[in-house]
Every structure is written in structure tokens, then in C-alpha cells.
């Protein structure tokens, strides 16, 4: 019988981040950004840059692509009409790519299948716009895995705000202390901490190119199967 990692043994809800935690979506995101920039007669950004910019939702990603990076977003305010136009172009292009180059990270499928068979609630909490999420889950046969799915635009606030996590805890009538968030970004760890969730970090995602240890999650696991004490496989 699979068991949860000792630090998670009280957990009744596991909430997962998507990009950089379950899936590597950057190849498609980078292609969509570069195709958007090309439409606007701007030079390509490339995958290395885009990998650093992902994590605060699609509007921030576009602000970074159009202004030259993190810390420059204010140069294009959220309500700027050029930004709105580029953002909607990007969303359509990203949609048209159908996640063809997006992959699950190693261990994700087996771990989720094992967790699904346990007495736990499972949720997905991503900053990605909701419209893309059902298609991605279906693409990987994970459409029946999660009891609740929140996108970056499902609520007025997104991570690092704790609101999406508190929403989940309320929805399942659970104390945050028996809930955990597993993510690749400091925004996940900050949201978890602010919500009173257990924070679990994975080091292989994006986190703006910085080590996730700096955000001091309660637990760091090198791959998702380490959520399970015996790694989810029969002895
Ligand atoms: O869309 C993003 O910026 C990242 O989404 P995530 O919250 O699933 O990592
Ligand atoms: Mg992420």
C-alpha cells in the first residue's frame, strides 16, 4: 500500500501547480511568444528567456516579452491597449499550438494515479488562464484526476495571493493545516505559507531561473513520486 511522505501524513488535500510542476509547457509558450512577437515585427525572445518569465500568468508573460523582462512590466500597464491586443493574439496562437510540445515530467502520471486511489482530495491551482486547462488535462488523460481545478483567472486573485488556496480549503471544508500545495515557484511557496498550507517544492521547474530553496518550502522533493513514501510502486 502506498503511503504519503511522513511530512504529509495528516494531509487530506493535495493541491498541485501545473506549469513547471506537472508539465513542461515552456516549448509551446516560447513558440507562441515568438510567433506573437513576429506578428508585431519584434525580435524573438527564445526559450531560455521565456522559461524565466513564466509563473505569474499570461498577461505578465506578455508584459515581460514586450518590455524586455522581469522588473520592466510597469512600462506597459495592465490596461494598455497594445498589451491587450498582443495578449489576445498570444492566447489564440498558444491555443492553436494544442500543447504539441508540452510534456509531463517524469513520475507525474504514476504518482497522480496512485494518489487518486488514496483517501485524499486532489486539486489543480495554476496561474495559467483556465480556458487552456481542461484541454491539457484531457491531452494527458488526466481529466478525471482532480476534484477541483482553478485557473489564474478563476478568482480575482492569483498566486502568490493565498486566495485560491483558501478557496479550496473552504470548498472542501478542511483546515489549511491538512492541505498542501506542491509547486515549482516561489509564488507557490508564498501562497502556501500565507494560506497556512504545507508547502512542497520541486526544483526542476522555472522559478524565474532561481533556486527554489531560497523560498524555503517545508519540503523539497526531486520528483513527484517522492510525495509517496514508497514512491507509489509495489515492493
Ligand atoms: O501561467 C503561468 O504563469 C504559470 O502557471 P503555473 O501557476 O501553473 O506555474
Ligand atoms: Mg509553476
Automatic annotation (TrEMBL):
InterPro entries: HAD-like_hydrolase_sf, HAD-like_sf, HAD-SF_hydro_IA, HAD_sf, PGP-like_dom2, PGPase_prok. The keyword Metal-binding applies. Its cofactor is Mg(2+). Keywords: Carbohydrate metabolism, Hydrolase, Magnesium, Metal-binding. One of its GO terms (molecular function) is metal ion binding. The active site is at residue 17. It comes from the Bacteria. Its EC number is 3.1.3.18. GO terms for cellular component: cytosol. Pathway: Organic acid metabolism; glycolate biosynthesis; glycolate from 2-phosphoglycolate: step 1/1. Mg(2+) binds at residues 17, 19, 184. It catalyses: 2-phosphoglycolate + H2O = glycolate + phosphate. GO terms for biological process: carbohydrate metabolic process; DNA repair; glycolate biosynthetic process. It is an enzyme of class 3 (hydrolase). Specifically catalyzes the dephosphorylation of 2-phosphoglycolate. Is involved in the dissimilation of the intracellular 2-phosphoglycolate formed during the DNA repair of 3'-phosphoglycolate ends, a major class of DNA lesions induced by oxidative stress. Belongs to the HAD-like hydrolase superfamily. CbbY/CbbZ/Gph/YieH family. This is Phosphoglycolate phosphatase. It comes from Marinospirillum alkaliphilum DSM 21637. The lineage of its organism: Bacteria, Pseudomonadati, Pseudomonadota, Gammaproteobacteria, Oceanospirillales.
Amino acid at each position: 500500500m502506498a503511503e504519503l511522505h511522513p511530512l504529509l501524513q495528516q494531509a487530506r488535500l493535495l493541491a498541485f501547480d501545473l506549469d513547471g510542476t506537472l508539465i513542461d509547457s515552456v516549448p509551446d509558450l516560447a513558440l507562441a511568444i515568438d510567433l506573437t512577437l513576429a506578428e508585431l515585427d519584434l525580435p524573438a525572445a527564445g526559450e531560455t528567456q521565456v522559461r524565466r518569465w513564466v509563473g505569474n500568468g499570461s498577461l505578465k508573460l506578455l508584459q515581460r516579452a514586450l518590455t524586455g523582462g522581469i522588473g520592466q512590466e510597469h512600462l506597459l500597464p495592465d490596461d494598455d491597449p497594445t498589451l491587450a491586443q498582443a495578449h489576445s493574439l498570444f492566447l489564440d496562437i498558444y491555443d492553436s499550438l494544442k500543447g504539441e510540445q508540452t510534456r509531463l515530467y517524469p513520475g507525474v502520471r504514476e504518482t497522480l494515479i496512485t494518489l487518486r486511489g488514496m483517501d485524499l482530495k486532489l486539486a489543480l491551482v495554476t496561474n495559467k488562464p483556465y480556458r487552456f486547462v481542461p484541454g491539457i488535462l484531457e491531452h494527458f488523460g488526466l481529466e478525471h484526476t482532480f476534484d477541483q481545478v482553478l485557473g489564474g483567472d478563476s478568482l480575482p486573485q492569483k498566486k502568490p495571493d493565498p486566495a485560491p488556496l483558501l478557496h479550496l480549503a473552504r470548498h472542501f471544508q478542511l483546515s489549511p493545516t491538512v492541505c498542501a500545495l506542491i509547486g515549482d515557484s516561489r509564488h507557490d511557496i508564498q501562497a502556501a505559507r500565507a494560506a497556512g498550507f504545507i508547502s512542497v517544492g520541486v526544483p526542476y521547474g522555472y522559478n524565474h531561473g532561481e533556486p527554489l530553496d531560497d523560498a524555503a518550502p517545508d519540503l523539497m522533493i526531486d520528483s513527484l513520486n517522492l510525495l509517496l513514501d514508497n514512491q507509489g510502486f509495489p515492493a
